[in-house]
Amino acid sequence: MAHLLLPFLLLLSSASVQAQQNIALGSSLTPQGPSSFWLSPSGDFAFGFRPIEGNSSSYLLAVWFNKISDQTVAWYARSTDPDPAPVQVSSSSRLQLTSGGVLSLQDPTGTEVWNPQVVGAAYATMLDVGNFVLAAADGSPKWETFNSPADTILLTQVLTTPKTLRSRIIATDYSSGRFLLDLQNNGVSLCPVAMPSGYHYDPYWSVDGNTTMLVFDATGRIYISFDDGTQINMTSGVISSMADYYHRATLDPDGVFRQYVYLKIGDQWSSAWTVVDFEPSNICEALLPNVGSGTCGFNSYCKFDGTNNQTSCLCPPNYSFLDEERKYKGCKPDFQPQSCDLDEASAMMQFELIWANHVDWPLADYEQYSPITENDCRRLCLRDCFCAVTVFHDTDNTCWKKKMPLSNGKLMGDVQRKVLLKVPKNNNLPKKNNSQSELVGSSKWKKDKKYWILGSSLFLGSSVLVNLLLISVLLFGTYCTIIRKEAPSLQSSSNLGLPLKAFTYAELENATSGFQEVLGTGASGIVYKGNLQDELGTCIAVKKIDKLQHETEKEFTMEVQTIGRTHHKNLVRLLGFCNEGKERLLVYEFMTNGSLNRILFGDVRLQWNLRVQIALGVARGLLYLHEECSTQIIHCDIKPQNILADDNFTAKISDFGLAKLLRTKQTQTNTGIRGTRGYVAPEWFKSIGITAKVDVYSFGVILLELICCRRNVELEAAEEDKKILTYWANDCYRCGRVDFLVEGDDEAILNLKKVERFVAVALWCLQEDPTMRPTMLKVTQMLDGAAAIPTPPDPSSVVSSLQ
Q1: Whole-number Cα distances in Å, 444 to 61, 440, 441, 448
Q2: Cα separation of 611 and 605, whole Å?
Q3: Which residues, 6+ apart, have CB-to-CB distance to 783 below 8 Å?
């Protein structure tokens, strides 16, 4: 039946292409222009720019349900990286169907950031089934969104092997999530994915066999078709009056593949997506990997509500979420864990075990006792500083001790074991709700008339006093304004015109516990780790500048203003500053994975795909600084210590302490020698102006270090010609043996063409004459494969073709 159905669907798709109004070559869309999307004939679906929730300045290229209240996204463009990321663009971007039949998405600089890799389309069309198609002259699809799904499939959509659906990270964040639907020739599976490496854990739902396709047919049934003609239902959400509903099936952020319907008729505002079927039947019980946290994060537990088919992650008593929005990151204890210096008596006085009713963490056992009594089981955990949970099974008198982090937690109605959680004594009561306490106080106040009258009198009297005080303050303030005029305080972020927080020195001293934990030492000061005293305990990096050397108030303010206005995925974000007395501090977001210096030159080789991701990230960050800022910024000290990585290994350029700012129409500047040995461009040592090309040179050195996983200078290298990486890489490239640079790196060897391309780009960046080096725009285009790379000249060459 599947073999008969597929040609019918393709015929239907082709007929629809021919029947409806086409989108002509030369058409274009802009996010905020008069035309930001193209509609299907019925208006049910739209293709174009969709604002990202909570970020009005960023847009997805997407297909969405156009007539429902929340305009649910059914498809969105993603990069082709090993770990696909959503393509996000700004309001000045442009999508164009060129005269050559190419669909091209370009950022404000005109750089292409996405295209579907097809040419020669005769026209485009948005179909009423939700499929956006680039069609040939005869109406056959050359490319279609149905053939490159994101996390959703639609009615009549047919997926042929191999294909994948990847969940979002959360409903409002379209980044690649933790779960994958994998359609391969040998079967279909749902499995967790380790981020950001992309490693697949064991499936928690699967069907094996010689698979040909996954079909969402017109009756609402989603089935797997095998090459022998047999079919197995994945869901069977068949309903009457199919035409009265919108339909979709989505791999949701919690790992459940759900089939939804949405009633077209009736009050739009009261309608909502309704689940009609889903797999697996209970994700909390289905997912039990030996490695990883499970459905929810570490130290949390999973609850499945069968009534509304929803999954939620919860923290045990005295624990709280690391991130309230991204609960999959798990929970942390709200108390100081038991010290191993405590003796048994002290430990038993300070801690107790409370029953985690119906909760179980089946893994993380590190010791087992049998036979044993429950009291002895409790005592053994209380005196053991490693023990976070103990489990007692009274049927066979067995005791297990578990240590953190706890994994695969779940809430179950049939837990046959007593699970006991170690917490501090007198610390397991819920915190008083402020609104409740205020309500109780208000009721008590109203119960007693005497208190009410007395309170009213006090209120009136105090009001008079407050008014007199306010008048005095206003008069005194006016007097001070008249007799003295002072410069406006730089402690006000409003004076800077920025959404930055102006911190007091005391706040930052408290946040860093007296500037105790050093993260690193930069050219102009020391960086400390800290935590803000906000609701989330935001982790920060505080740079205490102590080497400003004649920096004036005006210059410091100018730098804070410039850096504060930089907003890019590949730049460390400035959160605030302190300009109090002689103290100058900058407050940045904290980067979990630290510096490239640490992760690249450690004992374990960083994966090739992550090195590629970091190289592209640094290049795009520099492109932003050089060409996309209103004021061009030359960093002047690009090196591994100044490239940080977040928890997804996204590269972010940091430390603008040495940055040189260029005004509009200014192309170069004169300054003293800056930078770090091994990364400094030759022109620093000559009497010529410094341009953005000094950063290009430094990037070339780092690019080679990323390729080879070694430092630029290794004087202890056994072979003389390998001591300086830039010289050795040039020799290997000239001899046609770039494989020597990645010897023993199997992942890089498999991508030798890309290795050769990256080495060539690096050698162009390292040209001694700065005018011969490419711009960062050209560098990013060459790295992405969007621009051809001529052979880099020998060091003695003076002719360049990359201007």
Answers
A1: 57, 6, 5, 7
A2: 10
A3: 615, 616, 619, 757, 758, 761
Pairing relationship of beta strands 574-580 and 501-502 according to DSSP bridges:
parallel
309: phi > 0 → left, psi -120 to 50 → alpha, else beta; which? left
As to burial, measured by CB atoms within 10 angstroms (0-12 exposed, 13-18 middle, 19+ buried), residue 67 is middle
Tell me which of 254, 277, 637, 695 is the catalytic residue. Answer: 637
- The pLDDT of residue 299 is 94
Is the backbone peptide bond immediately before 253 cis, with ω within 30 degrees of 0?
no
- State the DSSP code for 168: E
How many C-beta atoms lie closer than 10 Å to residue 454's C-beta?
Answer: 11
Range 72-76 contact pairs with CB under 8 angstroms and sequence separation of 24 or more? 72/248, 72/262, 72/273, 73/152, 73/174, 74/45, 74/130, 74/152, 74/154, 74/248, 75/130, 75/132, 75/145, 75/149, 75/150, 75/152, 76/50, 76/150, 76/174
- Rounded distance between C-alpha atoms, residue 20 and residue 438, angstroms: 63
Alpha-carbon gap, residue 725 to 601, rounded angstroms = 14
Instruction: Find the Cα–Cα–Cα–Cα dihedral 456, 458, 461, 465, rounded to 10°.
Output: -130
Contact 270, 287 (CB under 8 A): no
| C-alpha distance from residue 375 to each of 172, 351, 380, 383, 424 (Å) | 47, 15, 9, 12, 18
Which amino acid type is present at position 372? I
Q: At 3, is the secondary structure helix, strand, or coil? A: helix
Q: How far is CA 350 from CA 418, 419, 439, in A?
A: 22, 20, 34
- Residue 794 has what DSSP assignment? P
**How many whole angstroms separate alpha carbon 438 and alpha carbon 424?**
28
Please give the pLDDT value at position 743: 92
Q: How far apart are CA 27 and CA 124, in angstroms?
A: 10
Q: CB–CB of 655/647 below 8 Å?
A: no
Sign of CA pseudo-dihedral 650, 651, 655, 660: negative
pLDDT value for 798: 41
DSSP designation for 624: I
What span, in angstroms and rounded, lies between the C-alpha atoms of 37 and 48? 4
Residues 139-160 as b/e (b if ≥16 CB within 10 A, e otherwise) read bebbbbbbeebbbbbbbbbbbe
Instruction: Output phi, psi for 485, to 5 deg.
Output: -120, 115
Which residue, among 707, 693, 700, has the nearest Cα to 773 in the 3D structure?
A: 693
Q: pTM here? A: 0.54
Q: Which domains does the chain have, with CATH numbers?
A: 2-179+209-271 (2.90.10.10), 281-430 (no CATH), 486-590 (3.30.200.20), 595-803 (1.10.510.10)
What distance in Å separates the CA atoms of residue 38 and residue 97, rounded to the nearest whole number? 12
Question: 528, 519 in Cβ contact below 8 A?
Answer: yes
Alpha-carbon distance of 764 to 700, in angstroms, equals 8
Active site residue 637: yes
Across the chain, which has 803 residues, the per-10-residue mean pLDDT values are 43 40 92 90 95 81 93 93 81 93 92 92 96 95 96 96 93 91 94 80 91 92 93 86 92 95 68 90 85 88 83 93 90 90 83 89 89 93 94 91 92 81 70 35 36 40 48 45 36 51 92 90 80 82 72 60 78 87 87 91 90 95 86 86 90 70 46 57 78 93 96 84 91 92 92 94 93 93 89 60 42
User: For residue 678, is it left (φ>0), alpha (ψ between -120 and 50) or beta?
Assistant: left
Q: Which two tokens stand for residue 442?
A: 């208000």
Pairing outcome for strands 88-90 and 55-65:
antiparallel
For 542-555, b where at least 16 C-beta lie within 10 A, e where not — what string? bbbbeeeeeeeeee
- Which position has the token pair 């400390």? 528
Q: Give CA separation, 531 vs 298, 507, 539, 591, in Å.
A: 21, 10, 4, 13
704 forms beta bridges with none
